[in-house]
Write the structure tokens for this entry.
Amino acid sequence: MKLNFHKNHKLLFGVVFWGFIFLSLIIAVFPALWVQQENEPLPASEPMTELERKGMKVFINEGCVYCHTQQVRPITMDENWGRPSAPGDYARINRPSVWRQTPAVLGSERTGPDLTNIGKRQPSSVWHYMHLYNPRSVVKESIMPSYPWLFQVVENPPKDATVVSIPGEYGPSNGKIVPTKKAKALVAYLKSLKQVPMDAKPTAAQQAKADSVAAQAAKKKINGATIYANNCASCHQSDGQGVQGVFPAMAGDPVVTAEDATDHIRVVLYGLQGKTIAGTEYQGIMQPFGESLSDEEVAAVINHERTSWGNDAPTVTPEDVAKVRNNDELNKIQAEE
Amino acid sequence: MNKPSAVRSVERPLTVEKAKAEERIETSPNSVRLIFSFIACSAFWLVFGTLVGEYLGLKFVWPELDTISWLSFGRLRPVHTNVVFWGFLSQGMLALALYVVPRTSQRELFSYRLGWTSLVLMNLSVVIGVISLMAGINNGAQEYREFVWPVFAFFAFGLMLIAYNLYKTIADRNVKEIYISNWYILAACLWTIILVLVAYLPGYQQDGISQTVIQGYYMHQGVGQWFTPMVLGLTYYFLPKLLNRPIYSYSLGVLAFWTQMVFYTMIGSHHFVFSPIPWWIQTVAIVFSVGMIVPVTAGTGNFLLTMRGKWRTIARSYSLPFILVGVIFYAIVSYQGTLEAFRSLNKVWHFTNYTIAHSHMSMYGFVSFLVWGGIYGLIPRMTGNEPPQFAVGAHFWLALIGVLVYSIPLMIGGTLQGLSWIAGESFIESVTLMTPYWVWRAVGGTMMFISHLIFGYNVWKMRPTTDKMTKAESVNA
Ligand code: HEM
Ligand code: HEM
């Protein structure tokens, strides 16, 4: 046998076979092993609960990952979604059984929003149930599929059942909508998706990158309408009309149109729940935005609300927001409430 | 060669008279049956898989088309991708390989029984896989390995049998040299076996990001070390054969082969640029993505130089235009892929519909067109039955225009999506701005789908018929 690729099939295909194994080892298998050894959940993170784990399974089985990423890249355009993702963020995601491999939650396409921090951005179960039952009931322009098979329609739900109220046109013609176990698990999973702080001190290079990212962010134009669309419209709606019985309208709302904006600022900074407005009790929960929005941004979004949809109330400045934020008295009252 | 007759061109002024498949080639009825069965399955999966694709495309415009769990977007999307990968293209390519390898080794296939076993195993895998995906059972939604391992094992086993079958055929060849096609074809089988084993074996890929490292490797090698070398190998046979002239440069083919093996293997992680997988792996992937210019230029240059001066032959053939389109798309999508890997452009295009355009230009414009070219070049010569020329032309033009109407709007829309995110607009803007482009996709997709129905009809027309088969048998006896 000559050493000639053209004539010696053992040599040719031997090199092809072993050569590829060699390359695969250095580019895939060894790096994976190495990453696996370094695999360490972030200290501040908590293990998933049984229910959240079940929810992740629903998330994977329904193929949500084909439209939703859970991956924040270390570039300016991804800042809305959170801090850059780190390997530790995924360390608790593991192989569920011998039959299936570790779920691919990073995703490869962003047809829908990134969900890395959806638990922070949207902590209201009611919103999630409505959205899953029919996304268009809360986001009119949405193209996300409805998942009615995660719900049951029952005539007379038992007293302790969670009943999801859906605006008439989107709901069933009669009966009430009750989430199944799967829907509950899925929503528990979605609500658990929150980044926790990285504890380790950033390396100099990371710090430099973070600084430049922050500097660029500061330069970014602050636009109340965009902030509203990103943070508020999914509940209060882009036309400011809210969703009846669940999320109050901003148009004509007494707090939004009040001369004194202090309450308005407080609601945005600290969130709200279970308040009765003009005789209606609202089911939804509003999350606090004090951590995610700066004083400038809070002021911008408040002014947007105060001057849109026919509202014509006095506007506020970032300094007004800072005053409320720094006012310990008010904070204490807030905590007691 | 038949000269176009004046009478017939008056009858059909809209179509150029195409040359008839010249000679009948002598192939044993055994091999005709096996190869045709692979092609028939492939055609079925094409129609099924793109029916699903078309339906998915419509859902972007009308998300409320149905509310049935088995038909929901997240479950059907992997059905689409896996069916076109493992049903349509894999089986179509293998059909042609089962002809090319014995032919260039100047002997019969090592074992027809093994060939049939492979066909059954692969189709079982796709059928069970489709049902389980629709029922919501998948392998952690890892793209292109969504079939759980007990299901994909059928496919992998079928592939191993084919590789063994082809290896034995080559090992026992009646010529000294191993023709370059066989390098590519058998290498593709061996690489894919390793790839699938690496993708499914446990141990090194476990939690979180370590799984992602393997996914980057797998999803790219799936296209890069299976479909690409396989169709290139087939083209190294069919192009010179149909043009009746040798390949321009044999050694360019060899250069492309080795660079393909080394460079392509390293670039998988360019699917995860800016992700939390180790930065150096991403950088290696980007560097080798640039390196890919070497095999791509060598390959397409070689094919185009083989075609030079033969444009008339190409225009008069009904298989060669498919091959020409395939070769051109190969060049376009490969250079495009290199661009997409650069961090600066990846920022704009990653996560957007630009990627979808790229996937279809490559898997469709490049791989599918080359497979169709091979099928139209081979089957009429094997069975003696030709498809209607008009129908082949309709397939060609609908598919070509269809894929352009599909992908150009998605490239534009995808770029706008990326720019909208960079500009910090609210997210829903990037959803609503896509609507017109998604409508175009549905239009292009419809044309593509119709062309596949026509292809199915043509395959039926080319089927081996008993009168011709018995003639072949008596010729062989
Ligand atoms: C059961 C699987 C899914 C779950 C749990 C899910 C969850 C979510 C959540 C929580 C949001 C709101 C994000 C935010 O406000 O930041 C959302 C939005 C969105 N999703 Fe999904 N999603 C799923 C499947 C899909 C699929 C398959 C698609 C693509 C066809 C999709 C497309 C969208 C789009 C376009 C939006 C933005 C508009 C909207 O808020 O509805 N989703 N999804
Ligand atoms: C009638 C023709 C076709 C239509 C309408 C169609 C439609 C679609 C749609 C709607 C998607 C999902 C896109 C998304 O999630 O944003 C998709 C994905 C995909 N299709 Fe097709 N398709 C067609 C033909 C094909 C063919 C023939 C192939 C392969 C030979 C193919 C390969 C793929 C791949 C690889 C993906 C995944 C893309 C990615 O994740 O980057 N498609 N297709």
Q: What stands out?
A: The first strand of chain A starts at residue 151 and ends at 154. The mean pLDDT of chain A is 85. The two ends of chain A are 88 Å apart (CA to CA). The pocket of protoporphyrin IX containing FE (ligand 2) is lined by residues A 66, 108-109, 111; B 50, 53-54, 56-57, 77, 80-81, 84, 89, 353, 355-356, 359-360, 363-364, 368, 445, 448-449 (CB under 6 Å).
